[in-house]
Amino acid sequence: MGKASAFLIDDLLNGVQNGVLKSKGCETATTIRDRTYVISGGDDALALEVQIFDKAANKRIIPTVLGTKPMPGKGHSAIQLDENKILILKKGSTSDDCIWFLEVDSTYVREQKKKLDTEVVAWSKGMEGNADMQIVISGPSGVGKGTLISMLKDEFPSMFGFSVSHTTRAPRIGEEDGVHYHFTDKNVMEQEIKDGKFLEFASVHGNLYGTSIEAVEVVADAGKRCILDIDVQGARSVRASALDAIFIFICPPSMEELEKRLRARGTDAEEQVLKRLRNAKTEIQQGEKSDIFDHILYNDKLEDCYKKLKELLGLKGNVTTKQKSASHGIDLPVDHSVSKINDKIVITCGTPEHGNESKNFRIVLNVSALKGGAPGRTRGIEVYDVISFSDGLNGMKLPN
Ligand SMILES: Nc1ncnc2c1ncn2[C@@H]1O[C@H](COP(=O)(O)OP(=O)(O)OP(=O)(O)O)[C@@H](O)[C@H]1O
Ligand SMILES: Nc1nc2c(ncn2[C@@H]2O[C@H](COP(=O)(O)O)[C@@H](O)[C@H]2O)c(=O)[nH]1
């Protein structure tokens, strides 16, 4: 809930720089510098489409659209947030699917333009609040990463979630699609990698493995810290990405013990066991020497290693699960207009002149501390409770 304010909404409305942009049917046009971004569709079954009109070049451009597109709703409103992105508010959508960003010139978009040698825009879903630091756990096959992660999830079910990776390897007995992995074909996964859906990917022990951006985001959306169980190559890629994470490498007490564990697990054919043991030597060298990892843990006695892992994650002693502040969400009516006032977005709902007063209210979004962005979520939005103006506009205050 936003606190009472230091300034008046009417003073601010008089000074709006970007103007109020009302949605026109199911099409909006937002001009940033020489370019007008026309976003259309979003009603019935149509996904939102983007076209660019470049005034300087006098041409229409159909860009490559990256990121997950918003699902159809009942239309949308759009307003320029800054030089790099447009804020989209979906009408008649669920409260957790209402705020979206179209990045038109962010760092990610510029990188992708260079890489793909084409015009690019990228969608990112807006989320209230921030995500906690994620956890990357790496180490050779059979060292006990999965065992340690299961222990954490069992002891702290509301605190930790697991990123479900994609892999081209065949499922083992007892492994479920969508639970242990998303089992997929090589050509499908390669196309999804090209489409920018993966945070990282690597060829590991002869198969393709990868963490999709969505796999991490769904865990963060649920208010949990996401644990990624990935190999050293993947950890290196995540280190170079924007994901805020703690990196932990798990080492076996000896190669003999590692071999014993791999064989005792009984999940891999002899050829795979030998391949995993060969790869383990390089992985351990890289893990111990590289600057990827913040911590190295030796998994000799399982209980000792688990205790140390908990200490690293700040779970020593009595842990009280952090109570997440309740998310307000927005239930946006079809009839609304949007204004930007400094770093606040004011959504005016209803028709104050003619309408039923009880329907008239404003929702305020604070967008001063946005984090993340395409190809993942844009977090850090604060939604202030509905401000009713049935008693007149004068004196209405915006939250600080
Ligand atoms: N400290 C330990 N002492 C003895 N056995 C262990 C220990 N930690 C794990 N194990 C056993 O070793 C085997 C391999 O563990 P686990 O499957 O967790 O490894 P992993 O690192 O996740 O492997 P992969 O990378 O192939 O998924 C399992 O049978 C597990 O029960
Ligand atoms: N780079 C990535 N590595 C991954 C991912 N998911 C799992 N892994 C690593 O692969 C090996 C083998 O796993 P297994 O299930 O076949 O035994 C293991 O060491 C994992 O850490 C991923 O998404 N990216």
From TrEMBL:
UniProt name for this protein: Guanylate kinase 1
EC number: 2.7.4.8
UniProt cross-references to Gene3D superfamilies, sorted A to Z: Guanylate Kinase phosphate binding domain, P-loop containing nucleotide triphosphate hydrolases
NCBIfam families: guanyl_kin
HAMAP family given in the database record: Guanylate_kinase
Molecular function in Gene Ontology: ATP binding; GMP kinase activity
Transmembrane feature ranges: none
Database matches in InterPro entries: GK/Ca_channel_bsu (IPR008145), Guanylate_kin-like_dom (IPR008144), Guanylate_kinase (IPR017665), Guanylate_kinase_CS (IPR020590), P-loop_NTPase (IPR027417)
Catalytic activity of the protein: GMP + ATP = GDP + ADP
Superkingdom to which the source organism belongs: Eukaryota
Protein family: Belongs to the guanylate kinase family.
CDD domains cross-referenced by the UniProt entry: GMPK (cd00071)
Keywords, comma-separated and alphabetical: ATP-binding, Kinase, Nucleotide-binding, Transferase
Domain Guanylate kinase-like: 132-314
A cellular component term, taken from the record's GO annotations: cytosol
